[in-house]
Design brief:
By secondary structure, this protein is mostly helical. It is built from two helices and no strands.
Length: about 120
């Protein structure tokens, strides 16, 4: 009878070893996945900058559509000067009032941003 009682104990030890191995594997996976997560900041920053550029170009397009509808003028008649901040400072000579200026409230109402700064 003493031989039958030792077999269940050996099965319990094997089961405990399997649980320990599984817990160690889960811990190793958690540690390696947490160290991999911090390397994606450059990619996230690039995606943010790309979104800013797309948003800015969309606002320029909307401003041009607004000015075309309001004034009936062609694109070459619009003034893209932004008061000397980041774009060209020489205005369009055919634009005589604020309604054909992209970066004014009475024109395209586009907020000028410097894409080089965050």
């Amino acid at each position: 009878m003493t031989g039958n009682t030792s077999r269940p104990a050996a099965g319990n030890v094997l089961f405990l070893i399997l649980i320990a191995v599984a817990l160690f594997a889960a811990l190793s996976y958690a540690v390696t996945s947490s160290s991999r997560g911090s390397g994606d900041t450059k990619m996230e920053n690039a995606e943010i900058e790309a979104a800013r550029i797309i948003q800015y170009s969309t606002s320029i397009d909307v401003g041009l559509q607004r000015m075309r509808a309001a004034t009936g003028k062609q694109d070459w008649e619009f003034d893209f000067a932004d008061n000397g901040q980041t774009m060209t400072t020489n205005g369009n000579a055919t634009c005589t009032d604020a309604s054909c200026r992209l970066f004014t409230v009475k024109g395209g109402t586009v907020a000028n941003i410097d894409l080089g700064k965050k």
